[in-house]
């Protein structure tokens, strides 16, 4: 099979740049990864010991703060997308477990629209009293960078816990593909010969899904990411259920989605997965080829995590974080994660680790948006 590469290997380039920056900033000290560190000098050893002790003390303080918080009424978790999509699907199996852990009702409120912006706006307008949280993704980072959000997401919100990091797939409507293509190679070949005849549905045209979709199609078409829509039309939908209905009805050809969102439709034969956007094939769909096999670097994937307003009481945040970790580790949620292929990538992360990822993603997506001519 002929190899193809995306014109911009975004993630790989940023990883190299960030590694170089870390090396220049830290001199010859060990930076983690697989690098073998030299024996530490006594002063460094003492510093490491102090840092470890400080970390343990911080964890103890965090747990104490969490124990001090008493949940007294219903907790709301805002989902910035509609019922039936991956965001909503990540929260639903978590809800009953959280209710048990917190001892109070937990309500999932879907505030859809504007690519996830409406949900952030709604959350920001609620009191920062520890009873309102929101699901966030890279899409909010991209909206923030493009100044589309009504508030400064980076400054006004803080992470609580990361829950999942999904692998996206490009799937096709069985009805719409008949007589045109049967796999990814044939899809891009047909798109080249019939520009703008084929359509792709998505929920967030300005988010991470758009990035990985255009990277994948650009790699297959042999064009730039800004030229993809010359071949394939993009159609926006407000909810996952609406998008799935359009796929089943043959109203659009393909969509970008998480495997968990359309697993039932794949099993029924209404939807056919064409390719997964991953380095290796997915555990739940081992017969579906991946972009790694095509030398197409489109591995972004959507992570989803819980956020809250930055001025939310620390004790409430710490208590919610502890409850989320317990819920994530529960047999029930682990079963959901396994069935949805969420365990193929590292999912859970605490607030500190999550914040580091978010900071890196701001750099990564700023570079992408500048390259695409969407921001200056």
Automatic annotation (TrEMBL):
CDD domains tied to this protein: PBP2_Bug_TTT
Keyword Membrane: no
Pfam families named among the record's database cross-references: TctC (PF03401)
InterPro entries linked: BUG (IPR005064), Bug_dom1 (IPR042100)
Highest taxon in the source lineage: Bacteria
Keywords of this entry: Receptor, Signal
Compositionally skewed regions (Low complexity) per UniProt: 35-55
Signal peptide residue numbers: 1-23
Segments of this protein annotated with the region Disordered: 28-65
Sequence ranges of Basic and acidic residues compositional bias: 56-65
Similarity annotation: Belongs to the UPF0065 (bug) family.
Protein name from the UniProt record: Tripartite-type tricarboxylate transporter, receptor component TctC
Organism per entry: Enterocloster lavalensis
Lineage, top ranks: Bacteria, Bacillati, Bacillota, Clostridia, Lachnospirales
């Amino acid at each position: 099979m002929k190899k193809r590469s995306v014109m911009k290997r975004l993630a790989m380039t940023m990883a190299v740049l960030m590694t170089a920056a870390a090396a220049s900033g830290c001199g010859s000290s060990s930076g983690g990864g697989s690098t073998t560190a030299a024996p530490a000098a006594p002063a460094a050893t003492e510093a490491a010991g102090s840092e470890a002790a400080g970390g343990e003390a911080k964890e103890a303080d965090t747990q104490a703060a969490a124990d001090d918080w008493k949940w007294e009424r219903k907790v709301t978790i805002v989902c910035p997308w509609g019922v039936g999509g991956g965001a909503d699907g990540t929260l639903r199996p978590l809800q009953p477990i959280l209710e048990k852990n917190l001892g109070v009702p937990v309500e999932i409120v879907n505030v859809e629209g504007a690519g996830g912006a409406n949900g952030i706006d709604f959350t920001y307008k609620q009191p920062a009293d520890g009873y309102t949280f929101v699901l966030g993704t890279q899409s909010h980072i991209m909206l923030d960078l493009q100044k589309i959000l009504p508030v400064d997401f980076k400054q006004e919100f803080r992470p609580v816990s990361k829950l999942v990091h999904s692998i996206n797939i490009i799937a096709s409507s069985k009805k719409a593909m008949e007589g045109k293509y049967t796999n990814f190679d044939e899809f891009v070949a047909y798109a080249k010969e019939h520009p703008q005849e084929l359509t792709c549905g998505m929920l967030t045209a300005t988010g991470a899904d758009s990035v990985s979709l255009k990277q994948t199609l650009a790699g297959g078409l042999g064009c730039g990411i800004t030229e993809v829509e010359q071949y394939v039309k993009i159609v926006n939908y407000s909810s996952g259920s609406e998008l799935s209905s359009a796929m089943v009805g043959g109203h659009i050809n393909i969509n970008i989605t998480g495997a968990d969102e359309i697993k039932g439709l794949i099993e029924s034969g209404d939807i056919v997965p064409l390719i997964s956007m991953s380095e290796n094939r997915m555990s739940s769909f081992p017969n579906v080829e991946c972009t790694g096999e095509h030398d197409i670097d489109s591995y972004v994937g959507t992570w989803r995590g819980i956020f809250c307003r930055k001025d939310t009481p620390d004790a409430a945040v710490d208590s919610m974080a502890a409850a989320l970790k317990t819920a994530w580790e529960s047999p029930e949620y682990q079963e959901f994660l396994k069935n949805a292929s969420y365990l193929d990538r590292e999912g859970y992360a605490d607030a500190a680790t999550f914040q580091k990822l978010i900071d890196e993603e701001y750099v990564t997506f700023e570079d992408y948006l500048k390259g695409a001519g969407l921001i200056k």
